[in-house]
Amino acid sequence: xxxxxxxxxxxxxxxxxxxxxxxxxxxxxxxxxxxxxxxxxxxxxxxxxxxxxxxxxxxxxxxxxxxxxxxxxxxxxxxxxxxxxxxxxxxxxxxxxxxxxxxxxxxxxxxxxxxxxxxxxxxxxxxxxxxxxxxxxxxxxxxxxxxxxxxxxxxxxxxxxxxxxxxxxxxxxxxxxxxxxxxxxxxxxxxxxxxxxxxxxxxxxxxxxxxxxxxxxxxxxxxxxxxxxxxxxxxxxxxxxxxxxxxxxxxxxxxxxxxxxxxxxxxxxxxxxxxxxxxxxxxxxxxxxxxxxxxxxxxxxxxxxxxxxxxxxxxxxxxxxxxxxxxxxxxxxxx
Length: 335
Ligand SMILES: Cc1cc2nc3c(=O)[nH]c(=O)nc-3n(C[C@H](O)[C@H](O)[C@H](O)COP(=O)(O)O)c2cc1C
What we know:
By secondary structure, the protein is an alpha/beta fold. The chain is built from 16 helices and eight strands.
């Protein structure tokens, strides 16, 4: 079986409410090769929910794209995999890692793996039997104290037919906070024959390199590190790459908004874009008034006003702070 992911490349994680078509097109521009839809509820897809079908669109995003399913009901998973067989995706990823209350309540995601491992494994087997695509699994570590339960479950997922396994190094009750247990990811990598993809805490290029170094995995998965920072993929490929200049920053936002308008239409695009635009502005030294403007953004005029503010660059106080830390970075930001 050829490798699905070329070693050395970072994968973009599925992130509910974020990894839609415009977001994926944006990260592709900075070198992201492998991306996923957000998790898609197998039951909703099986019953043809319009909103769900929208999430399961490749759109004009032409790169390698996985679709992720979450669910536990075998009939729903079977039907969903059959529907996906007629779509244009590259892998089918099964979510056995989500800790969100609405997923936990249905005993899906990590809850399924923890409390009904046999059912979780039967679900993997069923997806493998029905899907024409390679089936992959994304899960979390099961204990911080002891690697054995995680190793045991992941080995069984491999036996059930998973072609790769992405492992988030935090337990369920930590959600997305706290230490990432590199050593457990590493033990799982050693125990499995299929590639293990390391996930957790790679919020910058340096932290990504640490994740790879400490786990020994050939690929890692970026999640929150790409929100508001699609340049992270460039930072990973070229450690010395400069941060985006104000001009590149503004151009990226313009292209993103153009894709949003094409994808959602003018009635919804500005509202849906707000959270991503806020992420762009976070921690970059732009004045609070600009962020306040994003919270009510609803028209092209308001967007142009925002862009004027962005083109003026970060607040002088922020640039002064950078100047004190190292003039080079400031010059790059201005250029
Ligand atoms: C808002 C949010 C939504 C997420 N949605 C999904 C999802 O749909 N599917 C999934 O497998 N993981 C999802 N995750 C988990 C991420 O893919 C990733 O495993 C986690 O954030 C840890 O990586 P990080 O520390 O680099 O952010 C989500 C995480 C966040 C914060």
